Amino acid sequence: MLKAVITDIDGTLTDRRRRLSTEAIRTIRSLVDAGITVVVASGNTVCSLDMLCKMIGTDGSIIGENGGLYRFRYDGQIHVTGRQSVCWDAYHRIEEHFIAQGEVLTLYSPEYRFADVAFARTVDPVEAAGVIEGMPVRVIDTGFAIHLQYEGISKGSALGDLALLMGLEPSDFLAIGDSENDTDMIRRAGVGAAVGNATDDLRKAADYVSKKKYGDGFVEIIEKYRPEIV
Questions:
Q1: Domain range spanning residue 213?
Q2: What are the positions of the active site (predicted)?
């Protein structure tokens, strides 16, 4: 039996314009009201996730910065596993490369990030990855931003650590996502599901792919697996 839900936000609970699905939020609240833990896992910062958890109604357990940090609400401590200094080294190399081509990169919330480095999708992420080839840093294209994360760190690795704090196993979770950065998470979970707008790679990794897209897809997945959730 599944005991908890972990879900991506952008593209999973939102539409392409990052507008939250009201039906998805109602569904999450119904789970929380039934005593089921819902964890949000995102590339976003802690402060952004704290505000979102409060408004949605979850208990504040999070995975942020694409697995670079996590927090169990009843532990309260932010655990940072990413190595941001290495990511900054990679960023400066990428920045220098694109400046030489006349491109200026735009950072996202650098003062609030503790594990990764994120910037706007104004350059080719594949080209950016080529620039830092050989460095222990991954380029993650979420479809909303480009993130630089230390090698071996992912939402999936954070799920393993967070589950331990919660007295659970990754196999106790239903994981839902839409993008490349969700792949390891849904593979490690007991059940991994993708919404209908998911990338091809995520769809291949998922146990189930919803017919509906975005927030409606999230609702479809929860309705399918709700009988299996304690």
A1: 4-80+153-228
A2: 8 (nucleophile)
